[in-house]
Amino acid sequence: MRDRLRPALRELSVRVAEARLSLVVAPAGSGKSTLLGCWRDALAEAGADCAWLALSPVHDDPALFLEDLFDALPGRSGDGPAGEIERDLPHVDREDAHAVARRVRNALRGRERPLHVFLDDLHCLSRDGPTDRLIDLLLRDERSMLRFAIASRGARPRAAARLVAAGVALEVGTEDLSLRSNQIAAVLREQGVEPDRLTATLLAETRGWATGVQLAAGALARLDENEHEAFILAIARQPDLFEYVAGELLVHERAETLRLLEVAAVLGPADEAMLCEAAPERPPRGVVAHALDRGLLAREGERLGLHPLWTEYLLRQLRDRSTPEAWRALHARIAGALAGSDPERALRVGGEGEAWALVADLLERHGRSWVDRGRYHFVEEWLDRLEAAGVAASPIRAHLRALTAARRDPQGAIEALEATAASLRRAGDRTGEALALVDAGILAANEHRPEVTRRTMRQLFSLRRLVTDPDVRALSLAAVAILLVSRGRHRGAMRLLRRVRRGGLSLLPRATIELGLSIVGQYVDPEEAQALLDEVCADPEHRAHAPSFFMLQAQRARVRGLRGLDPESCLADARESVEAFQDFRLTMSEVGALDCQAKLLARLGRCEQSIQAFERAASLAEQLGHRDFEASMRGQCARELLSLGRSEAALAQARRAVEAFEAGRGPRDPFTFAFPAALAYRMLAECGHAQDAHRRVRAQEHRLRCPDLPIGHHQTLLFLARVAHLAGESGEAHGRLSEARDLRAHHGLRDHGSELDAELVAWAETTMDEPEATWDVRTLGGLEVWRRGRRVPDAAWRGRTTRRLLLRLLASETGERRERVEADLWPDADPRRAGNNLRVALSRLRKALGDGALLATGDRIALAPALVASWDVSRAASALRSGDAPDVALELLRGPFAPELFDDWAEELRREVEAQLLAVGCGCARSLLSEGDAHRAARLAERLAAFSPLCEEVWTLRARAELASGDPAAARRTLGRVRALFERELGIEPAAVLRDVEREIGAGPQTALG
């Protein structure tokens, strides 16, 4: 109607598009909502982003206000403004309007065009309530990309007067909305009433009130022409114009229409199917269409609803004529119809109708998701109402009560959650028990209650054999991973979490597993951890569980920030997480986020702010009695203080850090505490107390290692090397630096330079030369390679091919042509593929053995001479030839050559190696026997028999050596074994030489020796 009757108001949409605030203030029924709708349609047609929200008292909760606003925004799928805001806007607590306004501004930062928000019925919000304050703060922001159009019956935002005075606001009042004579005449003509003598009178009696004019026109259309004047004059004598005219209109409506309107008044906006389902009796065909034609119902898209004046009037009429039983029955029915599609509205309607059983059921089914979104006050209010109504308690509601009380009394909440878990266990609800244990464990960890954390994790793990629910089983195995992390077994935890992570899990177990993977992965595989965090933080579903989402966001900021990726954005995420953890009262999570924030500030050169963040984190950890975390924060704070030249303050923080670490009695997690504690000792040494720091390091060295975490262990070694260097212990410093360099080369940490302490790495590289690499290659009895006194782990080979290549290159001391190696290792592959395989294998072999192990000249590849010289076959042959080191040879001859390989070239090489060792070994044994060292000759012959058990010469030497040592019984047993072996394996008698030895043994030792 406004498009046609009020072109001047419609044309104001041009000014609305530019104004920061467009305010429409007038009494009910003046056409405020219609005008706002007209402006919205005009802006939307022009391509603007618009959102419409009809406010109600429930929107005093800013979380619900923003949630409903998200639903109204265009691009709800995540591609438009809604997606932009919802990805960046975290949990909203109703008590912190400034923080929420700041987050909304951050979410809209960088938009190219404004977002127009249309808010109807501002008067429904509580004056100075949290949402009212939020809207006021957003209006005051001069740089905001939000444009507001607000309708109200009288209440104005506090910023309105200031904006109007500044000329950036548009205000429309009652006079502007009142209909003029020509407009009233047009309304009368639409109803079929001749306006000649009625227009002036109707304008005088209604003062141009739009709803009054429309209702009066509808009533006049039902009267005879000679009754029109009297009806209009009677309007002036009514105390409530709307109620009088509405009564005149409805008195002529059918009963089924009135019942449908009453249901619509209780139900609120809904589609036609829902409206008919909620009615006590199915409305006859055509009733809905009739109500729409008469203007009693209005359609907004697919939803039908009533004008607020009609709603108020019908509810008042319904309440006056209904019995309490009928009133409650209608509300219970409508609440039941809403339960599946809109549980919050169903809760409100059910509460109005005192349908407490339905309210309790809705709260138990949906309460956890509301709490996870931070709706503490909302859930607590309904728990109080159920308790006041005398509804019997249940374990699930006890769980909700504990969660809502956690911010006020976390210790009491932990006890309540453990008691709830026990109640749910007795009730047979294993899933509920698991959730209660998880919540208790999270709270206990954040309150530094390690004994409770371990207890809940063990109980959670015990559920894995009792349930088939995949969520519970996943949570139980995640608990095992947490226990593994607490004991420093990070790689085992990583393998377990990777195995547990799969599709089909609900949000909480999935988020728990992803958080565990990212925490462990940041120092095991930072790139994988970053990719995982980028994926999960971009998923809007994760926001449904706000605590885990902010843990993931803080972890993402840590991983990306430490790798030098977009530090400003990471810093904003870290700050946001800190504020969220304050709201949730998750103190240790707040400390971790503060740690991340402080490190990012330091990387950005904002040292003073970094120091403040570290000090605040240390103070929180100290309050909880978490001395290890306090030590970590103070050690890092000392480094920043020293970088500013504030040595006395740095020394004080370093001393407090060392004392806190040494006094800590909690579980030792090297991931969190080892290298920050080592940093504290380094700071103590840097401040002139190197001897004291070194003495303390020696006493705590067993706690200052994290070998399962390469980057962390590398940093720890460098910190401790620096302490030893400053204390004058150059040998110890050299050893720690060598170990750190080996670790860095072995794990490829050069590719993760941004995660390392660049200053300390530079010091390490200039302090001492790279020590010469030494190897020990053992192939007899199985392949083992030792480098600088440490065995190369199996994982470093990355498969059998690398081992095969090493053995193939050992066969030729002067090197081998690439084509020959490719043909031996990959005989069935085409040349191009074999060449690629060889390049990969050479890269892996070089990484496993270290720099300098491989030599490449033209198309030939070879092993370094030092490495070939360390081969146990070469060393054993040399020792046997010389005859001066039989004990060395005995130690090296552990078994057959490379028993794990079966290639043709390997079999040939094995025969050559064993023939060589047998030849020189038998010669050495004969020499020992002739020199009278029969005992060593017998041991050597025994070792040689492992290479060739059917070699008569070896057995002859062994029997003669045993006889020469004065033990003919041992010689007889040896010959008995030989006879049985030859019979079993070859089916023949032993050779003549062995039979001669038998006869010599029978004649006595003198004969045998003669």
What can you see in these coordinates?
The protein has a five-stranded parallel β-sheet with strand order 2-3-4-1-5, with helices on both faces. Helix 21 (about 345-350) packs antiparallel against helix 22. The chain contains 55 helices and 14 strands. It is mainly alpha-helical and about 1000 residues long. Strand 7 and strand 8 form a beta hairpin.
Structural class computed from helices and strand pairing: mainly alpha
Provide the spatial order of strands within the biggest beta sheet. Answer: 2-3-4-1-5
Tell me the number of helical segments per DSSP (H or I, 4 or more residues long).
55
The major β-sheet equals:
5 strands, parallel
Principal-axis shape equals elongated
Approximate helicity band? 55-70%
The CA-CA distance between the termini, in Å, is: 133 Å
Rounded average pLDDT:
77
Q: In angstroms, what is the radius of gyration?
A: 42 Å
Oligomer: single chain
Low-confidence stretches: 76-95, 666-671, 751-755, 768-773, 1003-1010
The tally of strands reads 14
Strand content: 5-15%
What does this entry show, briefly?
With 1010 residues, the protein is mostly helical.
Write the layout of secondary structure elements.
Blueprint: H1 2-5, H2 7-11, H3 13-18, E1 21-25, H4 32-45, E2 49-54, H5 62-72, H6 81-88, H7 97-108, E3 115-120, H8 130-140, E4 146-152, H9 160-165, E5 169-172, H10 174-177, H11 181-190, H12 199-206, H13 210-220, H14 228-235, H15 241-250, H16 255-267, E6 270-271, H17 272-278, H18 287-293, E7 298-300, E8 303-305, H19 308-321, H20 324-338, H21 343-352, H22 356-372, H23 376-388, H24 395-405, H25 410-426, H26 430-446, H27 450-462, H28 470-486, H29 490-500, H30 507-524, H31 526-537, H32 546-562, H33 567-584, H34 587-603, H35 607-624, H36 627-643, H37 647-663, H38 670-686, H39 690-700, H40 710-726, H41 730-746, H42 758-767, E9 775-778, E10 784-787, E11 790-791, H43 794-797, H44 800-810, E12 816-817, H45 818-825, H46 831-849, E13 854-857, E14 860-863, H47 865-869, H48 872-882, H49 886-892, H50 904-930, H51 934-945, H52 952-964, H53 968-985, H54 992-1003, H55 1005-1009
Helix pairs in contact: 6-7, 7-8, 11-12, 12-14, 13-15, 16-18, 16-19, 20-21, 21-22, 22-23, 22-24, 23-24, 24-25, 25-26, 26-27, 26-28, 27-28, 28-29, 28-30, 29-30, 30-31, 30-32, 31-32, 32-33, 32-34, 33-34, 34-35, 35-36, 36-37, 36-38, 37-38, 38-39, 38-40, 39-40, 40-41, 44-46, 45-46, 48-49, 48-50, 49-51, ...
